[in-house]
Amino acid sequence: MKPVSKRRSNKLRRTESTHAVEKAACRLFVERGFRSTSMDLIAREVGMTKGAIYFYYKDKNALLLHILKQSQSEFSGKIFSAIDDKSGAPSDQIDIFLDTIIWVGGELDQYLLLLPVVMATEFKGRGDDVETAVKDIYEQMYQKLSDVIISGQNNGEFGSELPTRSLATMIVALTDGLLLEIYRQSSAVSGKEIGRAARVMVTNLLETTNGVKAPTNTLE
Length: 220
What we know:
It contains 9 helices and no strands. It is mainly α. Helix 4 packs parallel to helix 7 and helix 8 runs antiparallel to helix 9.
């Protein structure tokens, strides 16, 4: 049997180390906030020296930016692809969005999806790379939901009393709240129960109220 090379072994150790650092840092950033989480604390959480962490990441900002990119990948890779894979009515795509975000947030890594929610407040108005990264994550959600809503408005499935962007923003605000509530209540309320309630709310928000085909809408 061919022995494992030292190069491959080092690569594996590096992958395991960076994964542990990123997972611990993400949890601490959500639970304590970015400013209150030091690199010393992260190092203690994973049993590494601070110097070892700096070998992988230039500074704490670079570490946060890397994790935010992972969070964005969770949205585009799982949530948005689930919408794209669902052909049919726009209302079905909205349901898929809600179901998937609840599943990802409740069953996979809730800290990873909560991170942009928490960082959006802490970095608002700072004008740095982190604020830009968080805005990009949200803009991706606004655009994707707006595309689905416009499709539903054009075929008369959704109403057009409110601007498309406003509707998309309300759905994003709801999903942010869902993730926070799942985190806050833990096992008190299941993700499925919250998801069902969310679908009812969003359906009432989007459905056509006058039974007349809604005119073409555009992003505000």
